[in-house]
Amino acid sequence: MPRAMPGVLVQCDPSIKAIIVKINAEHNHDIIVEEIDEEHVLVKTSKHELLKNLLKDALKDTVKEAAESSESE
What we know:
The chain is an alpha+beta fold.
Protein backbone atom coordinates (compact mmCIF):
# COMPACT_ATOMS: atom_id res chain seq x y z
CA MET A 1 0.00 0.00 0.00
CA PRO A 2 1.38 3.47 -0.90
CA ARG A 3 2.46 5.74 1.92
CA ALA A 4 2.21 9.51 1.99
CA MET A 5 5.44 11.30 2.74
CA PRO A 6 5.96 15.05 3.26
CA GLY A 7 8.23 16.62 0.67
CA VAL A 8 9.46 19.82 -0.88
CA LEU A 9 9.14 20.37 -4.62
CA VAL A 10 12.43 21.67 -6.00
CA GLN A 11 12.40 23.38 -9.40
CA CYS A 12 15.81 23.80 -11.03
CA ASP A 13 17.76 23.65 -14.27
CA PRO A 14 18.65 20.19 -15.59
CA SER A 15 22.32 20.82 -14.75
CA ILE A 16 21.47 21.60 -11.11
CA LYS A 17 19.18 18.56 -10.99
CA ALA A 18 22.13 16.41 -12.07
CA ILE A 19 24.14 17.75 -9.13
CA ILE A 20 21.22 17.06 -6.77
CA VAL A 21 20.98 13.47 -8.06
CA LYS A 22 24.73 13.04 -7.52
CA ILE A 23 24.45 14.39 -3.95
CA ASN A 24 21.54 12.01 -3.35
CA ALA A 25 23.64 9.05 -4.54
CA GLU A 26 26.49 10.09 -2.23
CA HIS A 27 24.05 10.08 0.72
CA ASN A 28 22.62 6.59 0.18
CA HIS A 29 19.61 7.83 -1.81
CA ASP A 30 18.16 9.35 1.35
CA ILE A 31 17.28 12.84 0.03
CA ILE A 32 15.15 12.52 -3.12
CA VAL A 33 11.66 11.06 -2.86
CA GLU A 34 10.88 11.23 -6.59
CA GLU A 35 12.46 12.61 -9.76
CA ILE A 36 9.45 14.13 -11.51
CA ASP A 37 10.95 15.43 -14.75
CA GLU A 38 14.08 17.21 -16.02
CA GLU A 39 13.41 20.31 -13.89
CA HIS A 40 11.54 19.03 -10.82
CA VAL A 41 12.53 16.84 -7.89
CA LEU A 42 10.57 15.98 -4.77
CA VAL A 43 12.88 16.08 -1.74
CA LYS A 44 12.24 14.84 1.80
CA THR A 45 11.21 17.79 3.98
CA SER A 46 13.63 16.72 6.71
CA LYS A 47 16.56 16.73 4.23
CA HIS A 48 15.77 20.01 2.44
CA GLU A 49 18.15 22.21 4.50
CA LEU A 50 20.90 19.60 4.23
CA LEU A 51 20.46 19.52 0.45
CA LYS A 52 20.60 23.32 0.23
CA ASN A 53 23.87 23.40 2.16
CA LEU A 54 25.42 20.55 0.16
CA LEU A 55 24.32 22.13 -3.12
CA LYS A 56 25.75 25.49 -2.08
CA ASP A 57 29.09 23.81 -1.32
CA ALA A 58 29.04 21.89 -4.62
CA LEU A 59 28.28 25.04 -6.60
CA LYS A 60 30.97 27.00 -4.76
CA ASP A 61 33.55 24.38 -5.81
CA THR A 62 32.25 24.41 -9.39
CA VAL A 63 32.42 28.20 -9.63
CA LYS A 64 35.97 28.22 -8.22
CA GLU A 65 37.09 25.61 -10.76
CA ALA A 66 35.54 27.60 -13.63
CA ALA A 67 37.14 30.84 -12.44
CA GLU A 68 40.56 29.22 -12.05
CA SER A 69 40.47 27.69 -15.53
CA SER A 70 39.44 31.01 -17.14
CA GLU A 71 42.22 32.88 -15.30
CA SER A 72 44.88 30.48 -16.60
CA GLU A 73 43.89 31.04 -20.22
